[in-house]
Amino acid sequence: MGSGMGSGPRNFVRFRFGLWAICRGSCSRSCLGMRFAVYEMKVILSVLLNAFEFRPSPDCKISWLDHTILAPHVEGDPSLVNRLPLVVSEAH
């Protein structure tokens, strides 16, 4: 049978199509379309972020908690740990 799949097409062979089939985007031979899509999303996100201004909300007092990394915390409200209320407006 000339199936083009090598010997035993119904059997699982981990490296049948080479190591690139297992990488799934984490190596240099990953899908070109996926890398282009990720790059395109980064460009779109940078354009959107430049179109807006982000400022901390004037209604909340923010402090920074020193865990493994610094995390914003709204003072006086224990349910708002790791939160940073922002005011979003158009950039001038």
TrEMBL record:
Cross-referenced SUPFAM superfamilies, in alphabetical order? Answer: Cytochrome P450
Q: What molecular function does GO assign, one term?
A: heme binding
User: Which Pfam family, any one of them, does this sequence belong to?
Assistant: p450
InterPro entries annotated for this entry? Answer: Cyt_P450, Cyt_P450_sf
Tell me what this protein is called.
Answer: Cytochrome P450
